[in-house]
Amino acid sequence: MKHINTILVANRGEIASRIFRTCKQMGITSVAVYTDADKNAPYVQEADLAIHIGDSEPAASYLNQNKIIAAAKQVNADAIHPGYGFLSENPDFAERCSKEDIIFIGPNVEAIRAMGSKAEAKSIMEKAKVPTIPGYKGKDQSTQTLKAEALRIGFPLLLKATYGGGGKGMRIVHKEEELDNAITSSKREAMNAFGNDDLMVEKYIASGRHIEFQVFGDQHGNVIHILERECTIQRRYQKVVEESPSPVLTQELRERMGDVAVAAVKALNYDNAGTVEFIFDETTNDFFFLEVNTRLQVEHPVTEEITGLDLVKMQIESATGMPFQVQQEDIKGNGYAIEVRVYAEDAENNFAPVNGTVHMLRYPEVEGLRVESAIRTGSEISMHYDPMIAKIIVHDSNRNSAIAKLNYVLKNTICQGTRTNLAFLQTIIENEDFIAGKYDTHFIENNIDLTAIATLNQQDKEELAIVATLYNWQQREEQRTKLRAIPSGWRNNFYEHQKEAVVINDEEITVNYRYLEDHFEVIINDEKRISEIINCSEDSIRLSTNGLQKTFAICVKDDLTYIHTPSIGNVEVTLLDRFPIKEKAKEKGGYTSPMPSKIIKLLVATGDVVKENDPLIVISSMKMESTIMADEDGIIEEIFVEEGQNVQVDHLLLKINSK
């Protein structure tokens, strides 16, 4: 049996932090690698050692095998843990580690190679009599062949990267005229994410549930499954909510699917952590093989919470040659666990990723709460990587209790400085169909009104306007050094009110107020309120308004005031200057970047004639591609960017003359 003293984690963010934690518990030295963008990231500080590996672009750093191997040798690392994503399912990297006498903490190279190709994995499953979805997985990857196979299979169909996962390189195609663009963009995204642009074409199962089984093997031929996770609720083909046990599986069906999952990977001599994913048709109780992920999953904490196992520890032990310490009959589920992924993204804008600084991040103290995150107060959300802020996991005795507890956690999570999907997640778990366990892969599009996610009623907006105004008053009061005996904002006309104008969700609200001995008289839209500051600190204020007391978390940066209270959530408030600078008019016919992005491809040139809905520019942000489309007919007048350029939000990309 091999011995491991030092592990280098060839990854970043929350999964690196997660692995470091187990390393410390096992007495193993942990080593981080980091890029220019991650130099000050919290996970770097959590490792015992950290090595700089270069530029922020993944291809030049986290995907660069030479740099990872060199870093491991620099510190005499016995082993490399790849985490998930990046090099975690790259058989060439696993083989390289073996040749360099470095233990790769994952399954054997042959298993990774076989399952790394979704096409080969599907062939293996077919030979093992595992039901698979009809489709094409051939080596001929010409556009002509892919189109012909697509027409044979019929619509709707799914294009997906043969090598990869996480929704990268995946497109649903509903009609023939969408095929060319879908194939081109899928191939480009797959190449960018996985270094290979091979695609599979499959019949798209429009209504189903995504259920996966955690499997585990050791180097002595033993394979077990560690129950299931339901991952049906997704956006942009990426999981949003994960739970276990699945609310739809009977014990008989759970055992049958688990047996199939174990049999499938036993044929591979599987010897570490992995996941067998199925699409499940609830109406017929049929299930079809989707893929095998030969790595630790993002959602592994769900399994850990209901079983009490440390899957990272099991990975390390298995990599050293240690036989299983548990048997299949020992695996029992205890209670219920649910995980949601908190992202820096704009749910109303097709989940567009956003970046910036997290000025305040704080979670409530709740029994059964587990948070996996490498983002802290002051962290930067970089455009170069996935915009995940945290995984919030709640464990309780039953599903209803866990959902209720999770709802409380989401309401009381303070994340100020960047837009997040917290309100979106709350909308999901408050939905009656979700609570009843009735959902499929189209749950979000069929049940959630994304346009209403950030909607505030008038009472909420006026409440926030009062909070921002009185907090600002209190801060001015504390900063005054002269005439402190006279109240701030004193007027020689007693009846004249002070005024503050704020903007909340694009609505301007004027707050009229005056200080009367120990309270404020506040008037908004002719409605009078009596407010009193109970206490106030730099980052919070407690107000009593018409007798109702509430605490509000506050963070002020320049003219922006970020306010949080559980009943409303996290909101950005702008205090208007009394002498505002005139805003620059928007360029007529101009197209701007909707998010911080990299210009992947220019699809037009100056002078080109374009029609409405023609593709103009392909951009990439946080590993996901988007296409800027023309919203009118016209002629390309000028292009202001070039391929490979990084741009910030609202950067002018091009201009169309619509005359």
UniProtKB/TrEMBL annotation:
Could you name the domain of life of the organism this protein comes from? Answer: Bacteria
- Every copy of the ATP-grasp domain together lies at 122-320
Give the UniProt keywords, A-Z.
ATP-binding, Biotin, Ligase, Nucleotide-binding, Transit peptide
Q: Which InterPro entries match?
A: ATP-grasp, BC-like_N, Biotin_carboxylase_complex, Biotin_carboxylation_dom, Biotin_COase_C, Biotin_lipoyl, CPAse_ATP-bd, PreATP-grasp_dom_sf
Keyword match Transit peptide: yes
Sequence intervals crossing the membrane:
none
Which PROSITE patterns does the UniProt entry name for this protein? ATP_GRASP (PS50975), BC (PS50979), BIOTINYL_LIPOYL (PS50968), CPSASE_1 (PS00866), CPSASE_2 (PS00867)
Domain (Biotin carboxylation) ranges: 3-449
What positions does the domain Lipoyl-binding occupy? 580-657
What's a Gene Ontology MF term here? metal ion binding
Record bears the keyword Transit peptide? yes
What's the protein name?
ATP-grasp domain-containing protein
Q: Which lineage?
A: Bacteria, Pseudomonadati, Bacteroidota, Flavobacteriia, Flavobacteriales
